[in-house]
Specification:
Layout: H1 23-32, H2 41-47, H3 88-116, E1 143-145, E2 159-164, H4 170-178, E3 195-201, H5 207-220, E4 223-226, H6 235-249, E5 255-260, E6 264-265, H7 267-275, E7 284-290, E8 316-325, H8 329-336, H9 345-357, E9 360-363, E10 368-370, E11 383-386, H10 391-408, H11 412-416, E12 424-425
Parallel strand pairs: 2-3, 2-5, 3-4, 7-9, 10-11
Antiparallel strand pairs: 1-4, 5-8, 6-11, 7-8, 9-12
Helix pairs in contact: 1-3, 6-8, 6-9, 8-9
């Protein structure tokens, strides 16, 4: 049964109980004007008619009892004959108002339908205690400072390096810029390398930090600032943002290098090694690996059970330095969408995510050194994790070594430094 509405009466007839009109009925009645002549326009406007005709020729407010008709005394201001025609301006105003309402409803329906199909908003934490537990992290895709044309401004790049750094570590970045990150400025014959280096930083904690970032960016144009918080427990977000930035702006560069801002890398020797690498090795991480390490449950670097239930990590790269072909990075980003978040970035990216993406590791442990043990190994070690001398002094020794070898014989490094002890391990 149609819902009841206040009864109406006209011409002395019993009250006619009308169904509630839908917006479509009202629109048809108003815009097409079916049956809405003279006094009938009030009934069509208030109640509508699915048939296009008004149920009563002169409807006025009254009362009705469900189930039985009832006579209603008409108001003295409305005689039983036809009421006067409404002013034309009033009718046009009603038509215009209804048209605006209909258009608004259509726009609102389209808006809600569009946003209902959109994925949930991306959440990038500013503080570490808001990081997700037990589910994959969102990949940061927005940047406060992006340097989108960095690789386009440097044609012929062989290596794109992204360096994890904190905003406050200005000195470390400057030293990196004057040492291995500036290797493209040196002609070393067959081992010359064309490398581009960007420094990845997070959100500034205050205006002073943002001022540092802005001035450094304007001077060097090698700062990429993400929207994640600047905290060591958010380094995984920094790593994911870095990988996304490279796939978006530098996919054509053959090799990607990750490094911290305090490492010592013989980039000439590393480039020579990569040139001689076989096809199997090119499908894997090139790094110093850590195998089946126990999970720390106490101390500053502790990982809670709810963050990582297993007691051991899979095989992964030491986070200080690793190489990977750029064409494989998209696999890491795809796999990260299904690997639960872990704030230990080197374990997460090169261990858990690499295992999901089926990317293995070439173990270069014997090619990574510590200066305090092997100071004479320049030309034989690809990188160092510890140094007892300033990096600028070490870099001058590296340059002297390669200049001498290049002047003597341009094929010396190719013949003498082929690595015989590498082995590939598929995670």
């Amino acid at each position: 049964m149609a819902p009841l509405i206040p009864g109406v009466a006209g011409r002395g007839s019993p009250v006619d109980v009308l169904p509630v009109a839908s917006p479509v009925d009202i629109t048809v009645a108003l815009l097409l004007g079916k049956g809405c002549n003279r006094g009938e326009y009030r009934g069509c406007l208030l109640y509508g008619s699915s048939s296009g005709r008004c149920r009563s020729s002169a409807p006025f407010p009254g009362t009705a009892v469900a189930g039985r008709p009832q006579d209603v005394q008409l108001s003295p201001q409305y005689p039983q004959n036809d009421p006067p025609d409404p002013p034309a301006s009033s009718v046009h105003a009603r038509y215009l108002l209804l048209l605006v309402e209909v258009v608004t409803l259509v726009i609102l329906a389209a808006y809600l339908g569009h946003h209902a199909a959109l994925p949930p908003p991306i959440f990038i934490p500013y503080k570490p205690d808001t990081s997700p537990l037990g589910k994959p992290p969102d990949i940061p895709k927005r940047f406060l400072i992006e340097e989108a044309d960095f690789c386009q401004r440097r044609p012929g790049l062989q290596i794109i390096a992204y360096v994890h750094s904190a905003i406050s570590r200005v000195k470390q970045r400057n030293i990196t810029r004057t040492t291995w990150a500036n290797a493209s400025a040196y002609d070393m014959g067959p081992i010359s390398v064309n490398i581009g280096v960007v420094f990845m930083v997070g959100r500034a904690k205050d205006e002073e930090e943002q001022r540092i970032v802005n001035e450094e960016s304007q001077r060097y144009h090698d700062i990429v600032q993400g929207v994640y918080g600047e905290h060591y427990r958010l380094l995984t977000y920094k790593a994911l943002a870095s990988l996304y930035w490279i796939t978006r702006h530098c996919p054509h560069v053959p090799w990607t290098l990750h490094s911290d801002d305090d490492t010592y890398i013989d980039i000439f020797l590393f480039n020579q090694y990569l040139q001689n690498l076989g096809e199997v090795g090119k499908r894997n991480f090139q790094c110093s690996t850590l195998r089946s390490r126990s999970v720390l449950r106490s101390g500053r670097w502790k990982v809670r059970y709810v963050e990582y239930p297993s007691n051991r990590y899979p095989l992964y790269c030491s986070g200080a330095v690793w190489f990977l072909q750029t064409r494989l990075i998209w696999k890491l980003l795809k796999a990260a969408k299904s690997v639960p978040y872990l704030w230990v970035d080197d374990t997460y990216i090169t261990g858990l995510v690499a295992k999901k993406a089926r990317i293995g590791h070439v173990r270069l442990n014997k090619r990574f050194g510590r200066w305090r043990r092997q100071p004479e190994m320049i030309g034989k070690r690809l990188a160092w994790f510890e140094m007892l001398i300033p990096r600028t002094v070490w870099w001058q020794r590296v340059l002297e070594y390669h200049r001498k070898r290049t002047l003597r014989n341009k094929r010396t490094l190719r013949n003498n430094h082929t690595l015989h002890h590498n082995r590939t391990i598929i995670s």
